[in-house]
Design goal:
It contains two helices and four strands, in the order ββααββ. It is α+β, with helices and mostly antiparallel strands. It starts with a strand and ends with a strand.
Length: 104
Amino acid sequence: MIVTTTNSVEGRAVAQYLSVVCAQSVLGVNAFKDISAGMRNVFGGRSKSYENELAGGVSSVLEELERQGAALGADAVLSVDIDYETVGSNMLMVSASGTAVQLG
């Protein structure tokens, strides 16, 4: 399954547009990670704990787009858009959407 942010796959034509597919992952950040990130906010630097949580969320939503595309008989999911939001004070949300297609 090809999953890409582009609206086409080089050398392959879109034979059929199947459906828009969407996925969300809400990530809880525990108190220890929140304290560590708060310290980074004061002293500067990168928050590896948040980065790791976000990376896991991105992997999760991309896998879900693949599952949904496969269920529709797609060869690819095109025009993938990934967004990040905060939910409440200690939760992060990663969402993604794209277009499931069959390639010619």
